[in-house]
Design goal:
This protein is of the alpha/beta class. It is built from 9 helices and 6 strands; from the N terminus they run αααβαβαβαααβββα. It binds iron/sulfur cluster.
Length: 243
């Protein structure tokens, strides 16, 4: 833990109101026009190792952005047990390439244990319960002990994210949430990946612009909404960890 982050943690512990919706809104107003690099610099200077980065491994932008600024940073990967092999390979390549600490966030039950208690392929019958047990609950438990977490969510991901702030108070988890690439277009994503020669999840180029668990992700046709391939055929649009 750095000296800066120790101070922040101590202050927050002594006065939990230091970080709340109001203070986050103030910081958000200051950072809304900042670059992703400037937002990452602020996050690292403010929270140090008391922040965690969540990465789906659809790309490796956040592991690079934060690994280069905060070597050893915890990168949370929700290991649901249902990922594409390509996503696992992308995670492992990121771990080889960047100075990060991959934290595999696991559900309370293995897939086999969940099948035994709730029946096989719960995702097909009750995806909300499946997502809760394999993503929402594990993430909530893993965020305990951090003062801030970082996500790769962007406004262009979906209409439900159109007003996504850069910095916000995450009431549900009780910590600051930082979305440093919230304002990025797909073109900016491409520029960053190319400029830094980042490892890529090969599924993106194969027609999967939004990648989740394999049973709940399908290819998207040209012109279709990027997230329309997630839980296709249902009214579910989010797993519950971002919005
Ligand atoms: Fe289960 Fe599908 Fe949610 Fe993954 S995305 S946790 S398989 S419902």
């Amino acid at each position: 833990m750095t000296g800066t982050s120790t101070k922040v943690a101590d202050v927050v512990a002594a006065n939990p109101a230091v970080w709340n919706a109001i203070t986050c809104a103030e910081v958000n107003a200051r950072l809304e026009d900042a670059s992703a690099e400037e937002i990452a610099d602020w996050a690292v200077a403010t929270f140090g190792s008391r922040l965690a980065v969540a990465a789906s491994m659809q790309d490796t932008i956040l592991p690079h952005l934060f690994g280069t600024r905060l070597p050893g940073v915890d990168v949370l990967f929700l290991e649901t047990g249902y990922h594409f092999a390509q996503t696992i390979e992308t995670r492992d390549e990121a771990a080889r390439r960047f100075p990060i600490t991959i934290v595999n966030v696991t559900p309370r039950q293995s897939v086999a244990e969940q099948d035994a208690e709730f029946g096989k392929d719960l995702f097909a019958r009750d995806p909300n319960s499946c997502c809760f047990m394999r993503k929402v609950d594990p993430l909530a438990r893993s965020l305990q002990g951090y003062d801030a977490w970082v996500t790769g969510a962007r406004r262009v991901d979906a209409v439900t994210r159109a007003n996504l702030p850069v910095v916000t108070w995450d009431e549900g988890h009780g910590l600051v949430k930082i979305n440093p690439i919230a304002l990025w277009s797909d073109f900016q994503v491409e520029i960053y990946q190319t400029a830094h020669g980042l490892p890529r999840n090969p599924l993106v180029a194969q027609g999967y612009p939004s990648i989740g668990c394999e049973p709940c992700t399908r290819k998207v046709a040209a012109g279709e909404d990027a997230r329309s391939g997630r839980w296709a055929g249902t009214d579910k649009t989010e797993c519950g960890i971002i919005a």
